Phosphoesterase (Desulforamulus reducens), 239 residues
Amino acid sequence: MKIAIFADVHGNLLGLQAVLTDMRQRGVDATYCVGDLVGYGPRPNEVIDLLRQENIPTIMGNYDDAIGNMRFICGCDYKNEQAMKLGESSILWTKEHTSEENKAWLRQLPERLEFVAGGLKFLLVHGSPRQLNEYLFENTPEETLKQFLTENHCDVLVCGHTHLPYHKQVDGGHVINVGSAGKPKHGNANVGYALVDVTEGSLQVEFIQVPYDFEQTAREIEDVGLPKEFAEIIRTGRA
């Protein structure tokens, strides 16, 4: 069974379209989104509309929570005061440019999804099982990851939020971060997702990078009045 999982689209419609096209070409059996559909990017409504149209099971990210519930902050971990100001401008713009219908849809998203495939129990979250905005990086202590697997009685923990993909085997279990399908931080402009190939009791993970017209998205960011720094992240894949 081939399972495609993506996250952190952040209003990048062209990136999402490219990822979904690539998935279809690979003949995936199931597709999931682990949150952060909006924020930073120029097309929040179109991204939400496409996911709803495709009927893709989706969980809530911290940005979805912030926009859906009209919060003042998104719960992101800003590196400095300048980054915080940029984040605040993103929150303000996205709240103003996301429809009330789509805000209501964001509010009803679940914070976790569970399913069984190939005899393995999967748990999908955005940040971590305990917090929407907790970052699980590749260097997160293995003891912490093992604790999450044990406490949640799962074999495979899948998350996003960091925009940096990895797959770690932890004491018989697996932790997968799927990277970003709209605002990558892996060092180039390609958007990405995780392709999980499950056989009975085992799995293989491939991180797919998909090229797309990132310059168009960057120009859209600039044209709608979002900070130029967001366009530079789209162009470089670095934050």
